[in-house]
Amino acid sequence: MKSVLFSRFFILLPWMLIVIIMLDVDTRRPAPPLTPRPYFSPYAGGRWGARLPLRRGGLGRGREQRNESRPPPPLPPEPPLPTIYAITPTYSRPVQKAELTRLANTFRQVAQLHWILVEDASARSELVSRFLARAGLPSTHLHVPTPRRYKRPGLPRATEQRNAGLAWLRQRHGHQRAQPGVLFFADDDNTYSLELFQEMRTTRKVSVWPVGLVGGRRYERPLVENGKVVGWYTGWRADRPFAIDMAGFAVSLQVILSNPKAVFKRRGSQPGMQESDFLKQITTVEELEPKASNCTKVLVWHTRTEKVNLANEPKYHLDTVTIEV
Ligand code: UGA
Ligand code: MN
């Protein structure tokens, strides 16, 4: 009896081993996903703004969510991505290259951005020319000096430079139907989140959003009711028609072209009124498009770099090398 059992056991043993090995192999292999996972890379596909890992249309659209073998019908071609034109006035000072470096590092991560850098100078400087050549960004380098009589504390800054940027845009797009585009005034010392560019990219006429660290408060913002701007949260000159900083709005290229006379004005302009004076020429408060979750998120900060201490800088060059800072 024992020997029969033994012989049966030895006959079955190889089969049992085969079954055990197969079960083991099967449990080690990862289960195939029900739906193929879309490929997300931090630098891929971020239409409508920064190159963020967000696909246009999200997961609901396209092949990812389907669980069928038949290929889906081809998607209609996407409309061209509006170009963001960032106009940056800049002037020579010890921190200039550091500011421009921070700005370029941000802009480089934004799809379809054209940087219009306008030097407050009578000629293009070598520092900025060299910098732009290596910045790896589509750019235009302009210059115009601020007349000396306007270089005084308390007077608006960068008026001529922003106008030079506007003139360049109008000249470049003057003879053709405007490509979709959005204009934004990006001072060289502010701090910009990548989300901000996603928000402004969909500007139809003029869009607005909060700005952090400005007007003597933690932030200023447009007050929104039922999707419309109805007032301003601000701690400074609340009587301004548009109580908003230069960093708080964007304008579509079409609006810039269809209002060819809209510019920043020196005559009669008071401190802090540049934004209102300009916006009054192209839009009304009722027309403004609130961005950043109905103006409840700060995506840009009016940071200001402190003046550097160069008290120990020698009068004459002492170092053995000359270094650009
Ligand atoms: C605030 C606003 O945020 C600015 O948009 C506005 O132009 C400015 O006030 C004003 O009073 O006109 P604030 O931080 O006081 O900004 O100004 P800055 O950052 O010193 O200057 C704004 C921009 O103009 C910067 O991009 C700066 O590089 C440029 N700038 C400044 C010049 O091109 N030339 C100058 O002499 C001074
Ligand atoms: Mn500033």
TrEMBL record:
Q: Origin, by domain of life?
A: Eukaryota
Transmembrane as UniProt keyword: yes
Catalyses which reaction?
3-O-(beta-D-galactosyl-(1->3)-beta-D-galactosyl-(1->4)-beta-D-xylosyl)-L-seryl-[protein] + UDP-alpha-D-glucuronate = 3-O-(beta-D-GlcA-(1->3)-beta-D-Gal-(1->3)-beta-D-Gal-(1->4)-beta-D-Xyl)-L-seryl-[protein] + UDP + H(+)
What pathway, per the record? Protein modification; protein glycosylation
Record key words, sorted: Glycoprotein, Golgi apparatus, Manganese, Membrane, Metal-binding, Signal-anchor, Transferase, Transmembrane, Transmembrane helix
Q: What class of enzyme is it?
A: transferase
Its lineage opens with: Eukaryota, Metazoa, Chordata, Craniata, Vertebrata
What is this protein identified as?
Galactosylgalactosylxylosylprotein 3-beta-glucuronosyltransferase
Q: Which residues bind UDP-alpha-D-glucuronate?
A: 89-91, 120, 157, 162, 187-189, 302-304
Residue stretches spanning the membrane: 6-25
Q: Which cofactor does it need?
A: Mn(2+)
Q: Which family does it belong to?
A: Belongs to the glycosyltransferase 43 family.
A Pfam family annotated for this chain is Glyco_transf_43
Q: Care to name a GO molecular-function term for this sequence?
A: metal ion binding
* First-listed, main subcellular location of the protein, grouped into a coarse class: Golgi
State the compartments where it is located.
Golgi apparatus membrane
Q: Where is the composition biased (Pro residues)?
A: 70-82
Q: What GO cellular-component annotations does this UniProt entry give?
A: Golgi membrane
GO BP term (any one): carbohydrate metabolic process
